[in-house]
Specification:
Layout (H helix, E strand, L loop, with lengths): L1 E6 L1 E2 L13 E6 L3 E4 L3 E4 L6 E10 L4 E5 H12 L2
Antiparallel strand pairs: 1-3, 2-7, 4-6, 5-6, 6-7
């Protein structure tokens, strides 16, 4: 089952500036989602300013997608139907 995933970073790690990125879209196969983390709060390391909540979706090929709260809800819902 294919799903259009809205993500803000596709990489190993994120930093505060990554939250400024506009969402990108990648089509993924829901059957290839290895894991989806819980939402986590992200605060800037020096100022402590809250910048958002994010989750990490990891695929079987080890691609890692950092997604914001709204994308997390959509992906969680889609995965529950697989």
């Amino acid at each position: 089952m294919l799903f259009k995933l809205h993500y803000f970073k596709k990489a190993e790690h994120i930093c505060g500036d990554d939250f400024k990125n506009k969402n990108q879209i990648d089509t993924i196969n829901l059957n290839h989602v290895l894991s989806l983390s819980e939402l986590q709060k992200f605060n800037l390391p020096f100022s402590g300013k809250f910048v958002g909540k994010y989750a990490l979706a990891t695929m079987v090929n080890n691609d890692k997608y950092y997604i914001k709260e709204d994308s997390f809800s959509e992906l969680s819902s889609a995965l529950s139907k697989v």
